[in-house]
Amino acid sequence: MPNIKIKAIDIYHPNHVIENDFYINHFQKKGRDIQHFLEVMGREKRYVIDKVEENGLTMALEATKRVLERAGMTGKDLDYIEFSTQVPETTFPINAMYVHAEIQADHDTIIKDSNANCAGMTVAVEQASRYMLANPHIHTALIVGSDYNSLIANPEQEITYANYGDAACAVILEKTDENTGFIDASYHTDSVFKDKINYPAHGLTKAVKGKSDVQAINWLPFDGNVALPPTYKMIDQLLARNGLSIKDIDACCFSQFALSNILKIQDHYQIDQEKIIYVGDTYAYTGTSSPFIALYEGIKSGRIKRGDNVLFWTIGSGFQIVAMLYQY
Questions:
Q1: Of 99, 21, 30, which Cα lies nearest the Cα of 65?
Q2: Same domain, 169 and 186
Q3: Are residues 124 and 24 in the same domain?
Q4: Mind giving me the DSSP string for 57-118?
Q5: pLDDT tens digit string along 102-145?
Q6: What's the mean pLDDT in 58-63?
Q7: How far is 109 from 127, CA to CA, in rounded Å?
């Protein structure tokens, strides 16, 4: 029986670094102290696009070229390309079309864009893995996630402006006879917060017709802790139905949105610190690519090795939670 493994992973981020002091000073001028906020979120610095020629698509193209080189492959070797983003550079054509052209993929390569907000790349990898298992003609897939978050971050709201960074991550999935790779995934969706995080703030129609601001995300306050009980339930179910316990997990690549969330999950399951891959102090929050940048850094540092069981967890606005098990 075939399995789907992560053959290679690579990333791209801009060179420009902004540290916390910039944002502390920015909000002090507005009469607000955000130092505690930055501690809770676990921020120190972030990579931010500062060149007009860079955007979410260019980051994705660079990450794609890097992962193909790492895998020893070309665009001709790909059967499937999926671009995950919540900040597409274009809607016509899809961004994956530009990836296809840049790497000169074949005419029979399947391409698509997808958007599950911050849960996007995890959803894309999970669903591509299942599709590859079902389709005998698909042997390799490129999943690239890229968000130009600073483009639409709201300078009046620290939850985006001081919290986000820009980056892209690309993975190559490969069908294999090895006893490794994709294991399972679980979802929980509750639409209770569907009107709390909006871009465009009042919908595309009003933005295009000039009746609403299109410049920034509008983020209204809500209690994100409500997502934790279903998180514990779905992780418990995911582990149980695959005959695993939390002690069988070798590494945790969670959403880097807030360090406080990671610490709560870690405390709930009593996960050893060395198993928690945290990169939010370096990259800040990169949106769709967030758990996979953690995977990349875990592999790079030697904390994640071939054969390790990796638990992914992330959340998309609205909200949708995704947990996924992969044997790297």
A1: 99
A2: no
A3: yes
A4: HHHHHHHHHHHHHHHT--GGG-SEEEEE-SS-S-SSS-HHHHHHHHHT--TT-EEEEE-BTB
A5: 999 999 999 999 999 999 999 999 999 999 999 999 999 999 99
A6: 98
A7: 17
| Domain co-membership, 112 together with 7 | yes
First to last CA, the chain: 18
What length is written for the chain? 328
For residue 227, the domain's CATH number is 3.40.47.10
Using a pLDDT cut of 70, give the percent of the chain over it.
Answer: 100
pLDDT at 212 over 80: no
If asked whether residues 15 and 159 sit together in one domain, one would say yes
> Of the candidates 138, 156, 178, which is a domain's last residue?
178
As beta bridge partners, residue 143 has 82, 171
- Separation of alpha carbons 253 and 198, rounded Å: 26
DSSP of 120-131: HHHHHHHHHHHH
Average pLDDT for 208-218: 85
Contact between 296 and 169 under an 8 Å Cβ cutoff? The reply is yes
The number of domains in the chain is 2
Q: Are residues 188 and 286 in the same domain?
A: yes
Instruction: Tell me the pTM.
Output: 0.97
Domain around 26:
3-178
Could you give the CA distance from residue 183 to residue 241 in angstroms, rounded to a whole number? 11
**What's the confidence (pLDDT) of residue 1?**
85
SS3 for 261? helix
* 8 three-class SS: strand
